[in-house]
Each structure stands twice: as C-alpha cells, then as structure tokens.
Amino acid sequence: QAYLSYSNIAALTHLAGKPGWDITKTLDNVKIWTHEEGAVLSFKVEMQVKVPSHVAFSLLSDFSLRQRWDRHFLTCKVLQAVSEEEKIYHVTSAPAAGHQPRDFVILVSQRQPCRPQEPYTVAVRSVTLRAVPPSPEFCRSEILCAGFQIHSNSSSSCTVCYFNQVTSGVMPYLAANLTGSSKSIEDTALECIKFLE
Fold it and tell me: Record's PROSITE patterns (predicted)?
C-alpha cells in the first residue's frame, strides 16, 4: 500500500515535469495543454483561481465533492480510508453517446508541500479491490495517472493544474472535445474555478 501511494504521487510528479507540452487553447483563466508520447495522450488544464492554495487543496482532495463541479462524475463513494492521506473511491460516470456507463475504482493520494515552492498534490490512479469486482451494468475503466498540482501564487490566489494520461477507456469523452466540437474540458475547468471561488 505504501508503495502504491508513493508510486501514485511519483507518477503524477513525473508527468507534470515532462518536457514537450503543447498549448492547444487559452481562455481568460484556463489554458489547455496536450502531450503525446507513442499511444499515450496526456492533457493538462491550468486554472487561475482566486483562493489560497490550501483551500483549493482541501476542496479538490475530497472527491466526494467532485460531483458538484464535474458532470462526468455521477456517483462517488469512499470504499476505504486507507490513511489520512489515502482513500479508495468507487466512481460511476455517465455514458458517452453510444457507450455503456463506466465505473472506476481509484486510489486518491494527497500530499502537502514539504517546502514552500513545492505544490500541493492530489494524485489519482486505478486500483483493483476484490470487494468491488466489475459489474455487468458498467464498463470498468482504468485511470493510469491523473490528478492535481496546486501552486500558490499569493496569499489569496493559486494556479491549479489538472493532469490526465488518457487511455482508450477515457477517449470517447475526450475525442470530441480535443477536436473542438465539444467544450467539455473547458466547461469542466470553468465549473471547477466557480466551485473553488
């Protein structure tokens, strides 16, 4: 378990630090970046938020609040509180057109910065839990690496970066969006900012 949580945080830190991110969209408070490596597409959404970084961290690390701003989350319940910093959740998401509704079993690891210049981190990855086997009504999907890094800008503002390494399981939701025919990522980012502020 300790290894899983360590590798969860490490994978997100590694993804965030990769060179070669391309900016695809810039709005007032939101920038969207993509990174392609072989068959893996990652994206980063950078949001400017007018709340202190510790407030954004406490709101974003509690995934039971996620439905309040992310319409992709239908339900989200805690399956296991592994420690104060790690929880395992079961998430269900709405079906994309022509697809079965999906579900995920995810480990959410949160870390406060050790040094002032470091970000707050909320890392997410799929895990397998015997107690929650795949069910026929959902298509069990996997999150390789996702999460938030929250950088403090001032005592009353921060930059929230959301990362997601996209697998084919998440692709139906994003394909339309990245070609520009849907504003799903932008809309979700704006909802997130509104929720945090």
Answer: START
Give per-residue pLDDT as tens, 7-37.
999 999 999 999 999 998 888 899 999 888 8
Radius of gyration of the chain (CA): 16
3 state SS of 30: strand
Tokens of 29: 């408070």
DSSP E strands in the chain: the ranges are: 22-26, 30-37, 40-49, 73-81, 86-93, 102-111, 120-126, 139-140, 145-154, 157-166
Q: How far is CA 187 from CA 2, 34, 184, 193, in A?
A: 35, 17, 5, 10
Q: Domains of the chain (ranges plus CATH)?
A: 1-196 (3.30.530.20)
Q: Is the pTM of this model over 0.85?
A: yes
Q: In whole angstroms, how far apart are CA 2 and each of 5, 21, 94?
A: 5, 30, 32
Chain centroid to Cα 118, Å, comes to: 19
Short-list 19, 43, 47, CA closest to 174: 43
